Amino acid sequence: MRLLLVNPNMTVAMTERMAAIARATVGDRAEIVPLTATRGFPYIASRAEAQIAGGIALEMIAENLDGIDAVVIAAFGDPGLMGARELFDLPVVGMAEAAVMSAAMMGERFSIVTFSPLMTRWYADCVAATGLGGRFTGVCTPAAREVDVARVRSDLRDDLVALANRAVTEQGADVVILGGAPLAGLAPEIAAEVQAPVIDPIAAATAQAMTLAGLGGRFAGRACKPAGKSAIGLAPALARAIAMEVR
Amino acid sequence: MRLLLVNPNMTVAMTERMAAIARATVGDRAEIVPLTATRGFPYIASRAEAQIAGGIALEMIAENLDGIDAVVIAAFGDPGLMGARELFDLPVVGMAEAAVMSAAMMGERFSIVTFSPLMTRWYADCVAATGLGGRFTGVCTPAAREVDVARVRSDLRDDLVALANRAVTEQGADVVILGGAPLAGLAPEIAAEVQAPVIDPIAAATAQAMTLAGLGGRFAGRACKPAGKSAIGLAPALARAIAMEVR
Amino acid sequence: MRLLLVNPNMTVAMTERMAAIARATVGDRAEIVPLTATRGFPYIASRAEAQIAGGIALEMIAENLDGIDAVVIAAFGDPGLMGARELFDLPVVGMAEAAVMSAAMMGERFSIVTFSPLMTRWYADCVAATGLGGRFTGVCTPAAREVDVARVRSDLRDDLVALANRAVTEQGADVVILGGAPLAGLAPEIAAEVQAPVIDPIAAATAQAMTLAGLGGRFAGRACKPAGKSAIGLAPALARAIAMEVR
Amino acid sequence: MRLLLVNPNMTVAMTERMAAIARATVGDRAEIVPLTATRGFPYIASRAEAQIAGGIALEMIAENLDGIDAVVIAAFGDPGLMGARELFDLPVVGMAEAAVMSAAMMGERFSIVTFSPLMTRWYADCVAATGLGGRFTGVCTPAAREVDVARVRSDLRDDLVALANRAVTEQGADVVILGGAPLAGLAPEIAAEVQAPVIDPIAAATAQAMTLAGLGGRFAGRACKPAGKSAIGLAPALARAIAMEVR
Amino acid sequence: MRLLLVNPNMTVAMTERMAAIARATVGDRAEIVPLTATRGFPYIASRAEAQIAGGIALEMIAENLDGIDAVVIAAFGDPGLMGARELFDLPVVGMAEAAVMSAAMMGERFSIVTFSPLMTRWYADCVAATGLGGRFTGVCTPAAREVDVARVRSDLRDDLVALANRAVTEQGADVVILGGAPLAGLAPEIAAEVQAPVIDPIAAATAQAMTLAGLGGRFAGRACKPAGKSAIGLAPALARAIAMEVR
Amino acid sequence: MRLLLVNPNMTVAMTERMAAIARATVGDRAEIVPLTATRGFPYIASRAEAQIAGGIALEMIAENLDGIDAVVIAAFGDPGLMGARELFDLPVVGMAEAAVMSAAMMGERFSIVTFSPLMTRWYADCVAATGLGGRFTGVCTPAAREVDVARVRSDLRDDLVALANRAVTEQGADVVILGGAPLAGLAPEIAAEVQAPVIDPIAAATAQAMTLAGLGGRFAGRACKPAGKSAIGLAPALARAIAMEVR
InterPro entries of this UniProt entry (chains A, B, C, D, E, F) (predicted)? Predict the structure, then answer.
């Protein structure tokens, strides 16, 4: 199998770290095909940015669909996820949604721990979009808004462990999601120090993409797809997808 | 006052009809500045299309903000609305949201009547996004999926009146929203034949934009805005808005 | 146009202040016809009081409907609003509902700031009644229960600014509603000091009444009205309205 | 014990029938003190009527509270219930609420069967007000709107049995509530013909009033009561209750 | 009438205390038939324990149904309640549900006060199961997890009074439920010190069982029952109930 | 890895069919260890049966936990799932929950198609328990209640295909879950005839168990577990699990 790992952020180092985690997750069962956005934002953190980056994600998927079995949108916040599900005839998985659905099968209530209060609203919106907001105990972050994203994993390690444990003991979370691409890979490193399972969203999304692809089912010719449309000024591959001329 | 009427669809005739209704709504109190998308889709009808067209709407707003007091996103489905509210320091109103909020002040329950079952899911999603889904009696449409959008107002007039009355008498709607830009202007024409108030979304959105602009308040420097971001490959005006360098 | 501004409280000074704000809101587009209750309570603050004052509001409307285009119920808490919508064939708007619906078009989440914890439950009930409780961050008040209602605007000015800013920065409110007739007119005075738009409910209700009246629609002969009823011991005008003999 | 049975409708025959059922329910454990409204409506069926009749109910309670242990508001729709709970220091029970809460202890989902589609909206509102709307399968009525309220028990008997059985077999109701004072006393007569328990709301309300009175607890001096208020033009007993000068 | 009081916990002293309260509640109107589990747990406090104890409760009911008019499941958490309602043709009432439904007829919002934070999750789950979570202000407990269940009523008396009053004044609870069998009987003792009605769940459950039994209705032959099933390895009486061969 | 596949039903043929599907799902990545209940019911279809069978499932897990990496509860309805998650320090997955969570990553709305209306309530309860009821379009079944469970896959094949397609085209389901162990294995056979992905719950549950086990995390020593308890009369292995003495 081949999984397309679409990073709608422009930071190649993030893509590489996430691709490495994805490869460790799938082992020899699949090939990971990583893509990094070449326009847009270094790191998406609002609805406005997700509006634009989601369109870029659709374009990246449309242009790289050949031979692909499933797609991972590798940004917490899942930009473009709903639209991609309408357009493309294969499983498409988002990091936030996959982390939330996985958490919901590990325990009753889950928390998101992340690195800056600037992400709080954006991440809470993501959980609400899944429909599982009633099982969410909230976003927990350190107080400082400005952080060095490249160093956040080491700089904030102890704070994040403490926040995760407080989410469990004080807020009653059964599972902790370590949200945000800058924290990719940290979950297994701190797992032994946190009193509940800790989910790494990129690992969860990769595993869920494999799961959905393995379940099969008929994605092509679905009755619930929107009608094909002509489009002007879009990347040709995306225009063809909108016209329902592919797959 | 000056209102920017942003049609993220590419159909100029629709923009013109909607601008005429907007002008009739504001009279001499404001100038209407209409814009039509120059790329994208003739008529948005799905999440995938709204993902892309919403980014185009943000660009159109960013490039035409000078001297504007409020913005109307002139497509039922409100593409780009949430992002625009984050970025721009003035009231931004969507057709679906404005119609729904207005309906909710006219009665307890409201229905949307529109011209094709292809719009049902998209419009239901729009109502859910407002948070008022609990007062919504559903989308009512004729059975035929394929329609001539340019002629739908006259071709389906009788069907739409019948559907509106059924929404009232059978489903208990207190108010009927006539959804979709192709029906702009039909509401006052059929009002006398429908046993409940009928809302024209472009009139509602224009009136609400005036209302919000008139209420004043401090849109600039809001604490709840996201942080500014650098961006690559965006229209320069939109990049500056994302960087929070304007207004 | 002529708007009936019905204050179901007995405090004439409040009516006068609210009428002045309403006049500033409508300019030369409409005449404001203010009414003050001649029985009932100086200031409504509970369900029991609203039960009684709502009946008085219905009576005041029924007796003064001639030549009126829309009605504003000028008490936060909207006593009598739902019943008035059933009985009268024109737009009827409440201060709390209009403020909430307007706030919901300015941002995602809104807060109510008011002058005494005695109002907390009553105002929270009002928001819940609109159906938008999921977007409400709560009622914020100073700690002291006993206040001099006539002086509360000046005495508590600094406290209210601080509470409004805390609602924004700590609770994530995008918009602040300054609830309660004693605070009418304060919103524009403190707007520059609050890091989010601040809504004055009487201005919002007046503007929304104009908006709804401008949208037209068929209020008379609505299919969803209750059946006419005979009544005994009511003010004659109200009895005629209940009998569906007027308008 | 003494229970005040307050009929906020003006129909004495209804009060008498309901008092008889209440007496059969309490046996020798309590005395039933029935009251019929002397102004208002023959039969309440809308929010507007409930707004007014609820105020009348508060007055009736305030004037007859001496030696009373609990109050039953004997109209389906519970006019005045929430306000009465704020004002009076004893249990106050409504017919709709008591029927719903009792039904919710007999099965998972419940239906309301009543005599005219004119009651549908009003009764659905009552269920929503309890918070148990998620367990409600809806209001079922015969098609004819105009009925002779005095004869409805015999005229519609077979229709109501059929509707009740359909609510059970087709909509999955576990319990059927026979809503509306004109059907008081019919439940036990048709019980053997309906394939689920059938609740008579006046019996349920009487039994629940006894239950709550028996549970004791401190109704006087509750911290969650609103502050006392002066009032003008109210019945003196009600004004004293609003002023928190009684009980 | 005869009420079966089924304690699915193994602590006889608890059963005896609860039976005494039940007897005081029913007076000479009914006979209380108490049962204590002979296997299972001293005191149920989790979903896992309730899964098992609920099966034991079904067995205890099936084996002792002769001549019984209603059943009380005498453990807060209501183990086996939903299954018992499916199987047995008479009213079955749970302590948590009966307390919640009774509280909801005494006021708008209710709190649960109990003796250990270990019960918090379990009790919150119970409220959610009733559907009335929207009116629940939460579980309040002392900080210490380890308590001597037999002495908790006296040891923690002052703490519980303080917690109950804080639930009322700080969280806005109108009614307080004193949750957990070890607190049975404490409610009337502290009622005068708490500024809101305090509910004793075993008294509430007993009273509600009497109420439901008194309302009559057809429990046998209900259309919404599941189909009969053969079973192996169950207590014979329970197997017969599952086979729908009894009552 | 080793997965315990616990069938709390007593039908060995079902276990064998499900084990075969599970083996096809995991390939050489894991060993499937199937278990069939030796007491209880041939096929669980109600809350009462699930109450008892869930306790049996806990016992089966406790007695067979050695060397196991994850557990699948192989009955649609997930008897014992919540309790098992509390007790055991490894991932535990249910068929209904896993199917629902997987469906929710394939599309916006999902339907359950099954073989008899007798399952409708039970399956709807299962979806509600996941928290995703808002995305559920309902249970669709043939009209006949009595079916030969062993032959249902072939007898009803055409009916089930038609129901699945109607769920998609008429109710707007994006994904169809083929609910109930008797239909295990049918999904891939009919996939090409249904206009949406069709999920086989046992395949979904097996895949999700692998996914969760692969994500790692600290299940042992979780802070949110209930306290250990002594127990009497339970299978010794289950008693030790309840006492928190294992794993």
Answer: Asp/Glu/hydantoin_racemase, Hydantoin_racemase-like, Iso_Racemase_Enz_sf
Residue A207 is predicted with a pLDDT of 98
pLDDT digits (tens, 9 = 90+) for A187-227: 999 999 999 999 999 999 999 999 999 997 778 778 888 88
Pick C226's closest partner by Cβ from D45, D51, D52: D45
- The CA distance from B115 to the nearest CA of chain D, in Å, is 28
Closest to B41 measured CA to CA, from B31, B27, B21, B56: B56
Asked if residues F74 and F5 have their Cβ atoms less than 8 Å apart, the reply is yes
Same domain, D28 and D65: yes
pLDDT tens digits, B51-107: 999 999 999 999 999 999 999 999 989 999 999 999 999 999 999 999 999 999 999
Q: Is A132 on the interface with F (CB under 8 A)?
A: yes
* Helix or strand (DSSP H, E) at A56: helix A47-63
* C121 touches E at CB < 8 Å: yes
Residue C144 in domain: yes
**How many other C-beta atoms can be found within 10 angstroms of the C-beta atom of residue A192?**
10
Cβ neighbors of C58 (< 8 A, separation 6 or more) are C80, C83, C84, C87, C238, C241, D48, D51, D52
Q: What is the spatial distance between Cα D6 and Cα F204, in angstroms, rounded to a whole number?
A: 58
Residue segments in chain F with a per-residue pLDDT below the cut of 50: 247
Cβ pair C212, B98 in contact under 8 A:
no
CA distance D112 to D99: 10
Where residue D137 falls among pLDDT bands split at 50, 70, 90? Answer: very high
Query: Would you say residue D91 lies in a domain?
Result: yes
How many folded domains does chain D comprise? Answer: 2
User: How many residues does the structure list for chain C?
Assistant: 247
Can you list the positions of beta strands (E) in chain C? Answer: 2-9, 31-41, 70-73, 92-94, 110-113, 136-140, 175-178, 198-199
* Closest CA relative to residue F113, chosen from F174, F178, F158: F178
pTM: 0.95
Length of chain E measured in residues: 247
Closest of E185, E200, E181, E143 to residue E43, by C-alpha: E181
Is residue D194 domain-shared with residue D110, that is, in the same domain? yes
Cα distances (angstroms) measured from residue A62 to each of A84, A89, A240: 9, 11, 8
Query: E81, E92, E212, E215: which to substitute to probe chain D, counting the most D Cβ within 10 Å?
Result: E215
**Is C182 in the same domain as C216?**
no
Selection from C237, A23, A108 nearest residue E47 by Cα: A108
Residue B175, H or E segment: strand B175-178
Query: In angstroms, rounded to a whole number, what is the distance separating the alpha carbons of residues B16 and D35?
Result: 65
Residues of E with CB below 8 A from D162's CB? none
Q: pLDDT tens for residues D43-90?
A: 888 899 999 999 999 999 999 999 999 999 999 899 999 999 999 999
Query: Domain range spanning residue B133?
Result: 97-201
Per-residue model confidence (pLDDT) at position C149: 79
Contact flag F52-E58 (C-beta cutoff 8 Å): yes
Residues C71, C42 within the same domain: yes
Q: Within an 8 Å CB–CB cutoff, is residue F172 touching chain B? A: yes
D95 inside 8 A of chain E by CB: no
Sequence-distant (6+) residues with CB within 8 A of E147 are E115, E116, E155, E156
Two tokens, residue C42: 């100086």
Tokens of A53: 């980056």
Q: Which three-class secondary structure state does DSSP give residue C72?
A: strand
Using H for helix, E for strand and C for coil, what is the string for A177-237? EECCHHHCCHHHHHHHHCCCCEECHHHHHHHHHHHHHHHCCCCCCCCCCCCCCCCECCCHH
- Domain membership of residue F247 (yes or no) is no
